[in-house]
Design brief:
- The chain is mainly beta and 177 residues long.
- 0% of the residues lie in helices and 30% in strands.
Amino acid sequence: PHAGAVATAVPFSSTPTPDGRGQGLATSAPPVVWKSKDFLHWSLAGSIFPPGFDAKYWAPSAPVKKDGRYYLFPTLDNRITATVSTSLDGPFRALDGKEIRAGSGWKPFPVNVGHPIDADLFRDDDGQYYMVWSLRFIAKMNRDFTAFDGAPVEIKTKRGGYSEGPALFKRNGIYYY
């Protein structure tokens, strides 16, 4: 910018995996929103789920904004779960509007191959979304994010076993996993 210009900071929200309250993978702390205007100073902005949330929360996907709503695919109770909100700050609920708590009837996303954790979504140039998750699987998402549109496919690589925090991106026409 030219001399005297003032940069305007864009607010940023993050919903990371909370620590396991000193119990490692056995549990998690409540999922929260951290906010920053400069990526240096952060403040806690509360939980992204309504009161009563009681699932183990790990490894959320990056949030996806689609049709005016935000979609987040965290691992809840060791299963990928599709959640949605009208705000990045929440409250997030299951796609059918159910709260994530005992007795509400919420259901995880229907992943039936691989280890159904650590999801991330990728939007291709044509607007089609795909989900990748641990153990190198990928599947095309249906339009309303309630299921896959077709069968999942394993991404063959020279490396086997678990793949932590998978992500897919495209640069200069080449897909990178």
